[in-house]
Amino acid sequence: MAANTDPEEKTADAPAEAIDRGEVASVADGDDYEHYEAVVVGCGPGGAAAAATLARNGVETLVLERGVDAGSKNVSGGLLYAEESAPYTIDDLFPEFREATAERPITDYYLHNVAGNRVKTFDITDLHEHDTEWSDAVLRRRMDSWLAERVHEMTRETGGGLLTEVRVNGLLRDGGEIVGVTCDELDPITADLIVAADGVNSELARDAGLMDWERPEEWFQGVKAVVDLPDVDDRFDISEDEGEAHLFSGDLFSDVRGGGFLYTNEESLSIGTVFHLDSLVAEEAEPHELLDALLTHPLLGEWLDGEYHEREYSAKLVPDSKKVALREPHAGRLVLVGDAGGQMQAQGPIIKGMNHAVTAGALAAEAFVEARSRGDSTLAGERYAKRLRDEGVMAKLRPRRYEAASVLGERSPVANLTDRVVDSRAGRTVLRALSRANGLERLYGSPYLSMMVPDTATPYVTLPAVIAEELGEPVEGENDIEPPSLADRIGELTYDTDVGNPHIELLDSSVEASGAAVTACPVSARDFGGGCYREEVVKTNGDEERLVSLDTQPCVECGTCAIVADTRWEHPRGGKGVEFREG
C-alpha cells in the first residue's frame, strides 16, 4: 500500500509546526481545522478493528499511522488468538484474514523446564485450547499491512481513509476539553471520537494522564529474532496445517524473572524472550545475551541443526495487564485500545494481547455508534468501559484471583520462604509425588491457576529448575550455532535517521539516574561502543565522573529507557526511525 494515501482530499495539506512536548495544544479563536467523526491513531489489530467497525456503521473515519507502512513499527511475539467467549474476533471483522495473513495455525503447545542441560517438558495444549476457537502464528509487517489495505478501502467509503507517515504527537484541547489531535506533519484535526491504538508507547495516553512510565515492575521487555527455517515441517515433524508453540523457563536465564518462546511460522521461527523489566534492571542483565542463551541451548539444537540465519532482531515493551490495564480507559472523547490501554494478558503460560486489542477496538467503536444514536457521543468512553466489563475482557486482564494472591504471595519474606520450600528435600519429594500422579501437568494446564501466578522468582526460575533437576532428562547432542553479534544485529536493521530531531532527551546523564538504560536497552551493552546508550568516564580538573551518553540512531523505539532512566521519550516523526520488515 502506498504511503500517505489521501483520504478523499479531506486532510490538511500544509504541515503544522511541531508542538513542543509539555505544552498543551489548544484551539484558538478563529481556528478552523479539518473535522472527522472519528480519528483512529495506529493501524495495528486494535486500530484496524475500531476503524472497520466504525466504517461499517457509516462513521466518517480517518486513520493515522506513523510508519511508512502499517506493521513497520510493530513487533509481537507472534500468536494471535480467537477466543470462543470473545464478542469479536479478527476473522469476524475481516473474513479473509487467516488465509491472507497467518503464518500457520498453532496446534500443539509445550512448556520446557530447564536446569543446565536437563529438561522436563509438559504438554500444555489443553491450556492453549481453553476458550480458543483458533490460534495462528503471525508476523506483524505482513499482517498489519494487509489489514491497512482493507481499512483504507472501508474508511474511504465513509469519507475518510488512511494516512501513513503521520506522527500524532498529542491531544488538541478546547477550554480543557479534548477535541482532537495534533500531528508533526499535518495541521491539528478535530473529531468526535479519538481512538488511541498507538501501542505501548502511546503518547496520547500519557498526554491524557491515563498512563505513566514510573514503575518498571508494571512492564515486561520482549526481545525477538525471526530465524530462517525453510523446512519447518521436517524439523518439527508436523504437516503444513500444523504448528507448535514452545515456552522455556528455569535457570536458563539465571535469576531474571521471565522466560523464552519459540513459534513456528510458515518458513521461519519466531524465537524470543520476555522478562519483567524491574528484574532485568536488578540483575543488570543484557537482553541480547539472554536471547542468545536460549538460541544456543542444546534443546534448540535439534531444530536449528547447526544452521542459523537471523532475518531480523527486534524488541518492544509489553504492559503487564494485571497491574496496568485501565478499568476506565477513556478521557472525554479519547478511548484507549490494546497496548495503549495496558490490555496485554501475560499470566504464566497464558500470553494473549492482539486478540484483546481487536475486541477492545470493536467494542470502542460499537460504544460510539450507540452513544451517537442516543444523541450524546460524549458518553462513548463510559459505554466502552462498561462493555469491557460486561463482555468479561477486564476479568481476563485484571483477574481478581491474582490480586488476592499477590497481596501475600509477592511479599519478599513469603516469596523467599516459598523458594526455600520448593528447593528443599521435602519440596522435591512432593514434586516427584505429584509427577507420578500427573499432577504437575494438570497444574500447568489449569487456566484458573495460571491467572493467579505471582510475579516472583518461584514460578519463573526456582520451581522450573527444581522440576528439571528432579524429573528432567539430559538433552543429547550439541547446539553449535553462532548468533550474530549485537553490532551485526543493529547493522542489519533498517533506519531512516531523523537528523536534527532526536526523540530521546537525557534529563540527567549521571549513571545513578540513567545508567540502568545501558544494560536494559536491547541495542546497548556495557563495553559495547555502538548502540543507543553508553557509559563513559569523564575527567574534569582531576575528578572522574561516570556519565551516560546517547545516540538515538540505532534505537528500536521500545521505550525501555523512558522507564528505567531519567529521559524524555517520544516517537520519531512519521516514517522516521527504525523500520521492521518482519515484526
Short description, anyone?
The protein has 583 residues and is of the alpha+beta class.
List the topology elements.
Elements: E1 25-26, E2 34-41, H1 45-56, E3 61-64, E4 79-83, H2 90-93, H3 97-101, E5 104-105, E6 108-115, E7 118-123, H4 125-129, E8 132-137, H5 140-156, E9 161-163, E10 168-174, E11 177-183, E12 189-196, H6 203-207, E13 219-228, H7 232-236, E14 244-250, E15 258-264, E16 268-276, H8 277-283, H9 287-295, H10 298-304, E17 310-319, H11 321-324, E18 330-331, E19 334-336, E20 345-347, E21 350-352, H12 354-373, H13 380-390, H14 393-397, H15 400-409, H16 412-422, H17 425-436, H18 439-444, H19 447-450, H20 457-471, E22 473-474, H21 486-492, E23 494-496, E24 504-506, H22 511-514, H23 516-520, E25 533-540, E26 543-550, H24 560-564, E27 567-569, E28 577-579
Parallel strand pairs: 1-10, 2-3, 2-12, 3-9, 6-14, 12-19
Antiparallel strand pairs: 4-8, 5-8, 6-7, 7-22, 10-11, 11-12, 13-16, 13-17, 14-15, 15-16, 18-19, 20-21, 23-28, 24-27, 25-26
Biased composition (Basic and acidic residues): 7-23
Region (Disordered): 1-24
GO molecular function, one term: ribose 1,5-bisphosphate isomerase activity
Describe this structure in words.
GO terms for molecular function: oxidoreductase activity; ribose 1,5-bisphosphate isomerase activity. By secondary structure, this protein is of the alpha+beta class. The protein has 3 domains: 34-102 and 138-211 and 326-397, FAD/NAD(P)-binding domain (3-Layer(bba) Sandwich); 104-136 and 213-318 and 408-492, D-Amino Acid Oxidase, Chain A, domain 2 (2-Layer Sandwich), CATH 3.30.9; 494-579, Alpha-Beta Plaits, CATH 3.30.70. 33% of the residues lie in helices and 26% in strands. It has 24 helices and 28 strands. The strands form 7 sheets. Strands 1, 2, 3, 9, 10, 11, 12, 18 and 19 form a 9-stranded mixed β-sheet that branches. An 8-stranded mixed β-sheet has the order 17-13-16-15-14-6-7-22. It has a 3-stranded antiparallel β-sheet with strand order 4-8-5, with no helix packed on it. α1 runs parallel beside α5, α1 runs parallel beside α12 (354-373) and α16 runs parallel beside α20 (457-471). The chain is globular, with a radius of gyration of 24 Å. It starts with 24 loop residues before the first strand and ends with a strand.
